[in-house]
Specification:
The chain has about 110 residues and is mainly α. The protein has helices spanning about 10-15, 25-35, 45-75, 75-100, 100-110.
Length: about 110
């Protein structure tokens, strides 16, 4: 019977050791060493690209909120509510995008 060694990854280390806020100094050192040996793959989108994504979501939120306000003034309450929810959703996407790809990926996948 052959035994396979567990793969050293920073994700596996976090899964095994839980919340980094509770780690000891030795655990933090081990995590850094694993990161040096087997660094995680680079994020799908760079920080600059995520900031551009956040700006696009903010612009969408502003446009939807403006439209919702116009519709509400004209008495179209249902349509205004739909656009308000769209604006709120766009602001949430923008907030997640500002934090970078891992947070944005978790947000869009509902993790």
């Amino acid at each position: 019977m052959t035994r396979t060694q567990p793969t050293l990854t920073t994700d596996a280390f976090r899964d095994r050791h839980g919340d980094p806020a509770t780690w000891s100094v030795a655990a933090l050192d081990s995590y850094q060493v694993i990161g040096d040996i087997a660094p995680p793959p680079p994020p799908l989108l760079t920080h600059r690209e995520m900031q551009a994504e956040a700006e696009a979501w903010e612009a969408s939120a502003a446009n939807q909120q403006r439209l919702a306000d116009e519709l509400a003034r004209e008495g179209h309450d249902i349509a205004a509510g739909i656009h308000r929810r769209g604006a709120r959703d766009a602001r949430q996407h923008a907030a997640a995008a500002r934090l970078g790809w891992p947070y944005y990926e978790a947000f869009i996948n509902g993790w």
